[in-house]
Amino acid sequence: MANGPVGRDAAGRDGAPTLLAVAHGTRDPAGPRTVRALLERVRALRPWLPVAEGYAEIAAPVLEVAAAALRGPVVVVPLMLARGYHALIDIPGRVERVCPQAVMARPLGPHGMLAAALADRLGGPAAPGRGDAVVLGAAGSSDPAGIADVRAAARLLARRLRRPVPYGFVAAGGPALAEVVAEQRARGAGRVAVASYLLAPGFFHDRMAVSGADRVSAPIGAHDAVARLVLRRYDEARLRLCGAVPVA
After folding, report:
1. What integer is the mean pLDDT of 230-247?
2. Which pTM does this prediction carry?
């Protein structure tokens, strides 16, 4: 990464707490590359802010290693698009054990900024036309709160696109994406586009590619709206830690 890892003596301007961004992790090397590109955009928006990365599993540095390298106040921002096991239980519990002074931020989604990024990823020459259908594709969750968050994300995207947007999952927890795609086609859609509600490439995006859709958008990735949202979640949590928020 351009700025390198945040070490034990690192400190931001005015003692700003370190932002530790924690992603899920994937075996696809494009996943960590996407996370690092996103964090470079975060740094560009707030150059004085110390920023570190960690992963819940599979990719390196693993969360415990990343957190143990930090000293002083830390705000952990889960790079998750919905609530669920990792955002609500796994990551907070592991952070508490290795870095008890840290404060947890909320997951990124659902949020209108993500809807804006999704709309951008769907745009361009292959953008869905009036007779086409758009389906929000997500990984899936066994947590009712996570399913509710995806449902809310679909509503936000529908409002943004001014068209109905059903949702489907490629894993557990709700309507199967392939079935939702087939249903839209049976209803007469000219083409069916899947808006990929994923942050980075990997196993779940590969599953979307075989859902039967005519097009699957790229993962949200290193989008400026997502970088601003990461900082918003950081600032919300920092209020609990320091009582002050810098201006981006």
Report:
1. 78
2. 0.89
